[in-house]
Structures are given as C-alpha cells and as structure tokens.
Write a structure and sequence with these properties.
It contains 1 helix and 11 strands; from the N terminus they run H-E-E-E-E-E-E-E-E-E-E-E. Helix content is 10%, strand content 44%. The longest helix is centred in the N-terminal third of the chain and has 17 residues. The chain is elongated, with a radius of gyration of 19 Å. The termini are far apart. It has one domain: Immunoglobulin-like, CATH 2.60.40. It is mainly beta and 162 residues long.
C-alpha cells in the first residue's frame, strides 16, 4: 500500500512539474538562442535592425552605431497581478567573448507594471560602439523575468563586429 501511495504522489508531482514549460528556441539565421522556464513560454525569436525593422541575418554586424533589437514574441504564462497587469524585470549584458570582459551590464532595466497584451512581445535594444573593437566577437544577452512568479526567458547571441 505504501508503495502504491508513493507512486501516486510521485505521478502527481511529476505532472505538476511538467506543467511549467521549459525549452529552447533558436534562430538559425543569427544563432540567437532563447531558453525559457518557470511558466513563461515564447513562440518565436529573431533580431531586427532598429532603423528599418528588417531582420538581421548572419553573425556579423557593423562596429559603430549599429542599433538592433532582440525580439521575443508570443510570450505567455505570466502570473498576473490582481489588476490584470504583469510585473517584468530585464537584465542586459554585453561581453567580449575572448576575454570575457564586460562591455555593458544593466540590472533591472524595467520598472512598474505592464498590460499583459503588451508584454506578449519583449524587446531588448542594443547598439554597437565604443569600447568595442572591429573583428571581435561579443555576446549580447537579455534576461526577462516575471517579478510575480518564477518564469524567466534568456536570449543570447554571439555576433562579430566589422
């Protein structure tokens, strides 16, 4: 009887854990990798040029003043607040790959509450420039998290400046 009860409880626990989606989405054009867990789940990811909205393809970008956004679209699974809004956090990071030197580090870039419909699409905006150097590979990373739950989404891409 104890064995049966153990397996029933184990099955319930496994079902509860599997209700929290986790996984990986990859943009094969750029190498952008998005991981998600804790309830948040995106549908797609890509990188766009800020100036014209065109998609970035390849792994090389201009060195000076190139603005781009990592887009994570179709996000669902937020823990909504009583007013129906969501509370998000965002961390941005740029690191030079070879030396692991930090170029940019921003903690908790988002404040306040947001309409849940608006939060279905997440943008992380970046721009190249000083102190970056031509021919170096940089890791651009954005981490979004649900401040009212355990959900998180991390986007990371390695791009070379030219």
């Amino acid at each position: 009887m104890k064995t049966f009860l153990f397996w029933v409880l184990f099955g319930i626990l496994l079902a509860l854990v599997s209700c929290q989606p986790s996984g990986v989405i990859k943009d094969l054009n750029t190498g952008l990798t998005v991981t998600y867990s804790g309830g948040l789940k995106p549908k797609e990811c890509f990188i766009v040029k800020t100036d014209d909205g065109g998609r970035v393809s390849g792994k090389k970008i201009p060195l000076n003043g190139f603005k781009f956004s990592i887009i994570i679209a179709g996000v669902e699974g937020y823990n909504k607040l009583k007013n129906g809004k969501v509370s998000l956090g965002c961390e941005l990071e740029i690191t030079e790959k070879e030396s692991n030197a930090s170029v940019l580090s921003v903690k908790d870039a988002l404040k306040g509450e947001y309409d849940a419909k608006l939060a279905e699409t997440l943008n992380a905006d970046f721009m190249t420039g000083t102190p970056m150097k031509a021919g170096k590979e940089y890791i651009f990373k954005a981490k979004f998290y649900d401040k009212n739950g355990k959900g998180k989404i991390t986007a990371q891409v390695a791009l070379t400046t030219e």
